[in-house]
Amino acid sequence: MSKHQVLVLHGPNLNLLGSREPEIYGHQTLDDINESLVNLGAELGVSVNAQQSNHEGVLIDTIQAARTDGTKAIIINPGAFTHTSVAILDALNAFAGQVIEVHLSNVHKREAFRHHSYVSQRADGVIVGLGARGYELALRALVA
Ligand code: DQA
Q1: Phi and psi at residue 135, in whole multiples of 5°?
Q2: Active site residue 108
Q3: How far is 103 from 8, CA to CA, in rounded Å?
Q4: 79 Cβ contact list (under 8 Å, min separation 6)
Q5: What are residue 8's DSSP bridge partners?
Q6: To pair with 11 at 20 to 30 A between CA atoms, which of 88, 103, 119, 141?
Q7: 2 pLDDT more than 70
Q8: What DSSP element (H or E) covers 126?
Q9: How far apart are CA 99 and CA 39, in angstroms?
Q10: Tens digits of per-residue pLDDT, 39-54?
Q11: pLDDT digit string (tens) for 94-128?
């Protein structure tokens, strides 16, 4: 059983945060974001495990592992897989805990292909357009 209660899962290209289109995605690196989430978790009394992958199958394996390792909730930014992946939706549907979907940018203000999310059909909550703060708010909402 994992000692982590909240899995924060970042999808493709989010490893480039800080240098990738900073005018859209901000200047914070993924390490900065993850470090503040782990610290906030400690403050709130929950353990946070942050993972990133560029590979759909690895993200699915990680979600599947969360079904049985004690994970209570998943905060997920599936990156571009948001708009394409029925397989990630299916994996999340097989997870019994809470799911919050986060996007750094306001996807609804952007290209039409970003307006649809498969993951939103499963998510208990969705936060878009608030930058890295969205992850923090998701974690606070889960604990509340
Ligand atoms: C994103 C939005 C997606 O459309 C995009 O493909 C990403 C990042 C966001 O956090 O704003 O990679 O999920």
Answers
A1: -65, -40
A2: no
A3: 12
A4: 10, 11, 12, 13, 14
A5: 50, 75
A6: 141
A7: no
A8: strand 125-128
A9: 20
A10: 999 999 999 999 999 9
A11: 999 999 999 999 999 999 999 999 999 999 999 99
